[in-house]
Amino acid sequence: MTDFQILLASASPRRRELLASAGFRFQVVPANIDESPLPGELPRDHALRLACEKAAWTSTHHPGGVVVAADTIVVLEDRILAKPADPADARRMLRDLSGRAHTVMTGVCVRTGGREDAWVEETQVEFRKLTDADIDAYVATGEPMDKAGAYGIQGGAAHMVLRIEGSYTNVVGLPLAQVVEHLRRMGC
After folding, report:
1. Does the chain have fewer CB atoms within 10 Å around its N or its C terminus?
2. Is 71 a catalytic residue?
3. Distance CA 188, CA 64 (A)
4. How many domains does the chain have?
5. Is residue 92 part of a domain?
6. Residue 97 belongs to a domain with what CATH number?
7. pTM of the full predicted structure?
8. d(CA 11, CA 72)
């Protein structure tokens, strides 16, 4: 293995915590891109495009490193549930997720030199039926406001999740085992 510098193209504290927990040393270099969906863009394509655009931006502005870029979205019936605009929006999202299954998709792009490895990791998540009191109490914590789908599985929403199928760390924001495997395949 060669010596390398990982550049995390994200300001997400959850992604930082996950990479650090795996023993990686890295520099945080958030990408400056427009994250708006394109007209008619499918959720999976959206997550992958954003991850690749973040990796490209970071590679261009900080050449010479290994870039890890990701974008996580929550998808309910082909509809992207982004970060809530306000507490009322968070309540609406949580009511929509209540008692139902949804998909968490993370587009990931690992880029070094002229090589790029990109994929979308999907995890199925099922919520228990939530009461208005459950939703109001969670929204009052402020936690949902900076999270796709208005919840954080690793925090106060843990009790809302009945089951998951797939990568837990993907739901947190970075499919760590898969990222490590891709980095190894690229010689890192």
Report:
1. N
2. yes
3. 13
4. 1
5. yes
6. 3.90.950.10
7. 0.93
8. 13
Q: 140, exposed or middle or buried, with CB in 10 Å at 0-12, 13-18, 19+?
A: exposed
| pLDDT digit string, tens, across residues 152-185 | 999 999 999 999 999 999 999 999 999 999 998 8
Summarised one tens digit per residue, pLDDT across range 66-75 is 999 999 999 9
Q: Classify residue 29: in a domain, yes or no.
A: yes
Which entry of 3, 34, 71, 132 is annotated as an active-site residue? 71
* CA–CA dist 151, 107 (Å, integer): 18
Element holding 92 (H helix, E strand)? helix 87-97
Q: What angle do CA 180, 185, 188 make, to 5 degrees?
A: 65
- Residue 118 pLDDT greater than 50, yes or no: yes
CA distance 21 to 10: 16
